[in-house]
Amino acid sequence: MENNKPDYVYDNVIQINDADSSRRFLANVFMWMFVALGISALLAYLFASTSLQQVMIDPTTGLTGLGIVIMFAPLAFVLIMSFGVNRIPYGVLALLYVAYAAVTGMSFSIILLAYTASSVLGVFLTTSIVFGIMAIAGYTTKTDLTKFGSILIMFLIGIVVASLVNMFLHSTGLQMLISYIGVAVFVGLTAYDVQKLKNIGAGVTYGDATASKMALMGGLTLYLDFINLFLFLLRIFGRRR
Q: Is the whole model's pTM more than 0.90, yes or no?
């Protein structure tokens, strides 16, 4: 599960307050998000449906050494990009982003093997619809969602802790509860993050990074919202093989 929510702090950004600038910025954000989703979907399909899965899974022993590395690699990429955003050159940051999307897709292939293709497709379409609705809501609402952001982050931390505990308890009931709460949290975070990025695009932000870097990291934020929402919905509605 990709329950990583990077929080970025930018300084010295000029305030523009321009609606057109905000729209252009969000267009770049969503472009980066769709690039990551496309790369992840392609790699997940290739590794789940071809002989490439043997690189990650041994039929007798389970995950291979490389498979274990790939499962944990996405977190390392997120941490590097999050903490190094103001120091890493834009070109290198973009390469890290693409690599992150690729290894995430590889790790997803293991998860997707446990579910039928039809249920995965159905959950993906459901996730897309829910995400789209909440993104529009976050963009158009006049309500300031800032006060909800801290509450949602607290719930997210609780989900991470509960998930770690359940790794030892193996409780199906707790797992389902976590999944339902996870769906609610990432539905809310989608609206919150889109509104935050809308404000960033208009110049109301705080950062020492170029607009291009901020758009890329914004794409990462929405990508994480999408895939976490997808994974929690898959736990609830996915049909296992």
A: no
Q: Which residues contact 203 (CB under 8 A, 6 or more apart)?
A: 13, 14, 15, 16, 17, 18, 21
Please answer whether residues 112 and 44 qualify as being in contact, where contact means their C-beta atoms are separated by less than 8 angstroms: yes
The whole-chain average pLDDT of the chain stands at 88
Cα 25 from Cα 20, distance rounded (Å): 9
Alpha-carbon distance of 68 to 49, in angstroms, equals 19
Residue 81 burial (CB < 10 Å; 0-12/13-18/19+)?
Answer: buried
pLDDT digits (tens, 9 = 90+) for 3-41: 555 554 444 444 444 677 888 899 999 999 999 999 999
The model's pLDDT over 136-171, given as tens digits with 9 standing for 90+, comes to 999 999 999 988 999 999 999 999 999 999 999 999
Report residue 59 CA to chain centroid gap.
30
